[in-house]
Amino acid sequence: MYPHERSLVKQLSEKPFALIGVNRDSDLEEVRGIVKEKNITWRSFWNGPDGTRGPISTKWNVSAWPTIYVIDAKGVIRYKNVRGPKMDEAVTTLLHEIGHQIEIVHEDHSQNE
Amino acid sequence: MRRIYCVALATLFVFGCGAPKDPLTNEGENQPDSKTAMESLSPEEQFEQLNVAYVADLEEAGGDDTAAAAVADQYAGKFLDLASAHPESRTGFASLNWVAMLAADSDLQNQAIDRMVSEHIDNAALSRLGTQMAQRPLSDESEVQLVAMIEKSPHESVRATATMALASQLASLPADQQDEARIKDLYQSVVDQYSSLPRLVAAANGALAKFRFRIGQIAPEIKGEDLDGEAFKLSDYRGKVVVLDFWGDW
After folding, report:
1. CB contacts, 8 Å: B242 with chain A
2. For a Cys staple, B43 with which of B91, B131, B188, B201, CB 3.0–4.6 Å?
3. What is the ipTM of this complex?
């Protein structure tokens, strides 16, 4: 999960692309530690001290974690719960729509952390 | 099968308490369907006796669903008659309710519901019918019945449960046949009008959320703080492709 996303963020750093998290961990100190430890390079909203029952996931009706939405440049939800190669494909399609040809290649698919 | 049995017992219980014992049946003559005995009973007692007889016949049918359905429909006819004999009474309502909940035949159910709505529109207990109808499929009849409850009932709880039921019946159609705007309006009206019924409002909000977060909809705004406490919002990223990832470490 993290390595794939980290790779995506790194490869698309010059493109109009952002990976935004919504973090559900109730302990903010702990999650800051995790961000450092696991080298999470993207920005996250914090869902607040109520964890999975926080305001953002409640508003978005998210009950399964992780849940992924892919949103196009106009702000329209275009894909839901795409992971790995499917996420790459979705992002490639949406960037192509706004004139950016990209090819996503991950260095090492087998790595776990 | 077991559910039907429990509802029958529960319905029975409503009238079972406090009804005076009938002297006729207590004195050896154990014939609940004897015509004269029946007529000398109060409406509540007649209801109770019918229900007792129904439960006994149902037990006789054993686990056979077809036989049980036939028994239910046979008694549905008797309860409809009882309702006709005592219109605008508690027993009349309870008898129709019995048929609406327990009849196997949908025409009998519909007949009973039509009469509950036309003859008992002022009854607050119609809210239970509203709640129950949310589980039923949409039909031409159910739509008319629910709209009548929404438009005519003097009770918020009846109007609100009927609105929820109509919305969920409409929403149970296949996606390409759904009138999305109408469904959303119904749920929204529950949110707007029935703040005294927080559980229904929460359910309506949950249903609305499912529409808002569908593919093809504009992503609703998120305003919040990042993990360092700095405020930002989702719309800051308009113009970019965004992967929004609800995550936690596990």
Report:
1. 17-20, 70-71
2. B91
3. 0.94
What local confidence, expressed as pLDDT, does residue B156 receive?
Answer: 97
Q: Which two tokens stand for residue A108?
A: 């090492």
Residue A17 near chain B (CB below 8 Å): yes
Torsion angle, alpha carbons of B156, B162, B163, B164, to 10: 110
Residues in chain A: 113
For residues B111 and B105, give the distance between their C-alpha atoms in angstroms, rounded to a whole number.
10
Shortest CB distance from B227 goes to which of A46, A62, A98? A46
Please write the tens of the pLDDT for every residue from B185-221: 999 999 999 999 999 999 999 888 888 888 888 999 9
Beta bridge partners of A15: none
Assess B214–A contact: CB distance below 8 Å, yes or no. yes
Q: A26 φ, ψ to 5°?
A: -75, -25
Q: Which pLDDT score, from 0 to 100, does residue B97 have?
A: 96
- Give the whole-angstrom CA distance, residue B204 versus residue B195: 11
